[in-house]
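Open question from group meeting: does this chain pack into something compact, or does most of it stay loose? Before anyone orders reagents, we agreed to write out a predicted structure and look at it together. Recording both the input and the output here so the notebook holds the full record.
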Amino acid sequence: MLFAQKIPFDISSMTGTVGNLTYLALAAIALWGSYCVLIAWRRIGQLNFKRESQQYDFLAAMHQCYLAGDMEAIRNECQGDKRAVPQLVLIALKNMSLPATKLHDLLIERFQRDVLVEIDYRTTWVHTVIKSAPMLGLFGTVLGMMGAFSKLGAQTRVEPTMLASDIMLALITTAIGLTIAVPLIFATASLSIRTAKLEDYVSSAILNIVEWKK
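Structure tokens returned:
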């Protein structure tokens, strides 16, 4: 108690300002996490065929052109297509002199470097937001409770209404942190499924392209 009386200022006077900064930080990471999810979701959609049958028909048509020696038709078809498989077809076309195993490894390496790294970059940020949002909420909880206990320690009689703002800060920041984290957990699970589907499609396509050499 003697130590408490020596405190030159009321801690609760700081909670309002720091609490507002906490709200801003939570809003900022919520926007950033949502942005990364949207970018990754859109990017995967741009890279993949909607159905496996579409990819199969595309590769079959490209194979026929390859057998006919019409490389120009393949280039014309693939150059304007930003999906992963057409771009890999162009890379394979330039490296058909390589042995089948080296060509396969080259296509896998290019897919991982040019496609998966970008998606992993976004999902890593989303995981960071998932972890940091509840921590910021917990910081707001501790801050609010510090303000409430500071008022209790500084005065002999405290009205419940005087503690309301600090308790609200403690509860609201916790709720906001969880509200940010929980939907993003489901979003990352969906992104993981879409990424795995993209990898399956591309792996199948690479095997198909390598077989053109046989």
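Observations to bring back to the group:
The CA atoms of residues 131 and 181 lie 7 Å apart.
The radius of gyration is 28 Å.
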